[in-house]
């Protein structure tokens, strides 16, 4: 175990080295390879620096004040479904501690906070029942108190949790009826909160959600088919595509409603958040470069292309054919240009392996729905980056820069918010040992430098949200995957700022002393 002091000295030493190198060696070094030390001044004054959470992961109070059951409440209560049987019944008890938490946001000095609304807290039975006034009151309290401290709400409407009733009635996102339910929910949100909420994210990560819920069957409603998994029902090749299709159309209909009925008076903007990875070619040949192209298409362009250009990426159509649902002419019109900004959740980079001409792929990778791309984090026995608490996530900060530059080529002049970016340590440890989180600081610094470099090359990035404000319920993986700038004691619920929280505060305030971290 390296003592913090030793680490501190070596960090100091390292940054000195970088400084000396860049002073004397600047003629040979190309701009891309130059070591850059992160500074607040690399970002515009009005740049958004925030932190993010989502409702189910932090709120708890799963049965309080008239809230209906969500799909996650039901799913996590079935033995065997989640790591250690853990659930979000209490989570971080944010429902009762939000005032304390807003004080902590103020301490951090963030100018924005990304939260999500629990659909079943507002509409316990979806459109088949009434609005729950106590649910509305809870979010009003949060929003009002944030605004009092000068913190802008970025509100996600749907972040993985839906009222269970919609699942029971018609199978949730697999059914087009969901479009009507989503628009109903969105309308309530605009009506109740839109006078104060000016940044909306309709849906979080349709690509990740549909993969786990309908391809691998590890999130509710646990549907899949062999060889992806052995669920009691489902079709892993088709259903993720159908569910995402319904999500996209739901988004577009909600945005149409917003633009017609609310935007003229409320003046806000709407986006959708996608989990976007970067991919590097596994080998230095044309097949691998094509695999990277397909990875981009099947990972984020699947969703961003329709929102910007009005239809799925041609590469997806080419490989998935008629299994990929089609938009009607009217739907295309509705979708095209239906976002004011792209929400980008970015964590890591993979190597992309071409499965069309290689036998290095698994059975599941070698399918049309995966674009015939295999992914790996290892090449020639060497990991692509340092390990994290999510086994397939590694620290690859240059991936952020390349991703953002590629996004701005594909979607020119489109505003981007990094709606999630963060680090969890590979080995969970209880208690104070976890407070000295140098690796998390290093991660955020390196990724922020990558954002700044991409912006210098023209990426229109307007904000950055660290995932996460505090440790929380990491879905099926429970509480031992910790992304928080704040450590949350599971027994007492006490929140303690990690070193990274102090660093982020100092960085945002531009009072960072380089020797401190
Ligand atoms: C799938 O699960 C069923 C029921 O648990 C079992 O009978 C069957 O052998 C499993 N199939 C495979 C291929 O694992
Ligand atoms: C886009 O991604 C590819 C594939 O990794 C990479 O080679 C390229 O440099 C990226 N483009 C930009 C402009 O960063
Ligand atoms: C880019 O977008 C802004 C507003 O979103 C607009 O004012 C500007 O004209 C656009 N620039 C180009 C080159 O399209």
TrEMBL record:
Native species: Spinacia oleracea (Spinach)
GO MF, one annotated term: beta-glucosidase activity
UniProt keyword Signal, yes or no: yes
Family as reported in the entry's similarity comment: Belongs to the glycosyl hydrolase 1 family.
Keywords, in A-Z order: Glycosidase, Hydrolase, Signal
A family per Pfam: Glyco_hydro_1
Name by which UniProt lists this protein: Beta-glucosidase 18
Signal peptide region: 1-22
GO biological process, alphabetically ordered: carbohydrate metabolic process
Entries under PROSITE patterns matching the protein: GLYCOSYL_HYDROL_F1_2 (PS00653)
